Amino acid sequence: MNYTDIEPEPIVATEPELAELALLSQLLNGPSNGSRPQLPRLVSPEGEEIELPESMFSLLRQAAHQLIKGNGVIISTFHQPLTIREAAALLGTRWQYVVQLIEDGEIRFVDTGYDRRIEFDDVMAHKQKLSELHRRGIQELAQISQEFDLYSMDVPQSDKATNKPAK
After folding, report:
1. Does the residue 2 lie in any domain?
2. Which of 7, 40, 94, 103 is 20 to 30 A distant from 49 in Cα terms?
3. How far is it, in rounded angstroms, from Cα 33 to Cα 35?
4. Which residues of 128-154 are buried (b: 16+ CB within 10 A; e: fewer)?
5. Beta-strand relationship, 158-159 and 116-117
């Protein structure tokens, strides 16, 4: 069987595998002293060694983490460059929003004549930008709440029976 014959199938860890997965996760996450873990090496039965590429290392870390939590894992593929719908799925939004981002010049695209395609790195850069904006917004709300002492305000409780605000 060659690599083109492999179909993605859902993977769920069995109970006996959980201890081994926990150990694998520890090895993949490396020391907790803040340094980046060294990439592990894969050894074939014949003793041939290869360092795992960064992309495979990241995939293994994510899969091990999800399996330990009891979640199932399936690998989902996408084309590069991405279709508008694939970009929307990665951003967790509707395809119409991605079209608007393209039209507003927020995300670059390539016109293939039939449709528009977007580079993966451009989608991920936009996702990072949105995450940063959300993080800043939350920090700003927390700062405003502290400045106006909103954390210590008495909030009227509702009447449990009628669900109406207390008077």
Report:
1. no
2. 7
3. 6
4. eeeeeeeeeeeeeeeeeeeeeeeeeee
5. unpaired
Instruction: Tell me, yes or no, whether 130 and 95 share the same domain.
Output: yes
Among 1, 4, 64, which Cα is nearest to 30's?
64
Q: How far does the chain reach from its first CA to its final CA, in angstroms? A: 73
- For residue range 44-94, what is the model confidence (pLDDT) as tens digits? 999 999 999 999 999 999 999 999 999 999 988 888 899 999 999 999 999
Cβ count within 10 A of residue 40: 15
Does 144 fall in a domain?
yes
Residue-range definition of the domain harbouring residue 71: 8-33+51-77
Could you tell me if residue 167 is inside a domain?
Answer: no
What's the domain count of the chain?
2
* Lowest mean per-residue pLDDT among 26-30, 33-37, 141-145: 33-37
- Give the separation between CA 36 and CA 31, rounded to whole angstroms: 8
Whether 166 is in a domain gets the answer no
Q: Which residues pair with 20 in a beta bridge?
A: none
Nearest to 110 by CA among 89, 80, 130, 131: 80
